Amino acid sequence: MNSKIGRFVDSQETESWDDAAKANSPAAAAIGFLDGLLCPAGPLGYNGAMQLPTIQPRSSRRVNVGGVGIGGGSPVVIQSMTNTRTADLDETAEQVERLAAAGAELVRIAAATAADTAVLGDLVRRSPVPIVADVHFHADRALEAIDAGCAKIRLNPGNIDDAARVRQIIAAATDAGCAIRVGVNEGSVVGRCGAELDSQQLARPLADLMVKKLAEYLTLFEEARFGKLVLSAKSHDAVTTIAVNRELAKRYEHPLHLGVTHAGTARTGAIRSAAAIGALLAEGIGETIRISFAGDPLNEVTAATELLASLRLRERTGVELIACPTCGRLQMDLTPVIEAVEQALDEMGRVAPPVTVAIMGCVVNGPGEAANADVAICAGKGKAVLYRHGERVRNVAHCDIVAAVLDEVRTIADGA
Ligand code: SF4
Asked: What is the pTM of this model?
């Protein structure tokens, strides 16, 4: 090995870490460095004083979207999108309400046809959260959505690019106080790549093309001094999404809407989104997010909330479930129990104060997790031990675990 640390370890120049620490050698410096990282207080022991990083949001402008602030130090805004036919007002309004109840602070709808935009006035009145109209191809849909009172519209530079029509939309949005997201997707720019690109080059040029497309389009907004702007650039590929948004964050103070497009089902969509959006948020980039995957959009909101809570960008408002991933030490079939608890807690909805529940499959980590959880189960052979705030409460039969956990959560949530 070539590194100083590696050379020291491999060549046995000293006999122990202690000996090396006493020596005035590169190895000693390396040990000192490692020791400092791991142990501010003493040699090679950890005293629990490691500082956890705090995410510092980048500086961005604040855009008011129907009373919801995006950027400028506001909490990262969760949004989702309906998958109903927008023109079916009752069905769409009902889904908007469900999404809002689950934690969506903005809800986007597809404004694809004149029949869709015809119901937007009523939808805006019925919605508990600001409505965003997603517009492609037809400038008239954008004008109708603004006229109907939508708080924001989304324009795609790839398919509404007639400068005169865009200026008309900007003027209408200015008069109405409507925000505009300029959202470019890799699908809108890929045609400009031509046939020259090989697959290895694909990630970087796509990011460049998206930035270029956006920059060209934004000249129309700059010339009109339109400030209620949110920007987005999405790819199906997490690495491209990270690259392009880093570049946008360098160039613009407009808030950024983060998302991964066409991410597929929950299996791929949730992980790709968490990889790309999580990486960017950890760098302080991104003022509003949409996690998107096929299926009930309610799951998108749940995933977005979990992502923000995991990064400590949001306080948990519900139950945090810590669960054994299962291994050969399992003392019972725990997976159905975990699923049943998870479902019951989901149905319970938000509880205050937030409660941490640990469902553990054996004694290896069970008591340790129980010490840090509000409610915990440590499963053993034939029975499980129930803990509250780290204190052993009682034994419960395997078949009673779900009911016992829920009782404890309710008791804590009720302040008992
Ligand atoms: S809690 Fe026990 S059974 Fe579950 S994964 Fe950890 S060691 Fe395995």
From this structure: 0.79
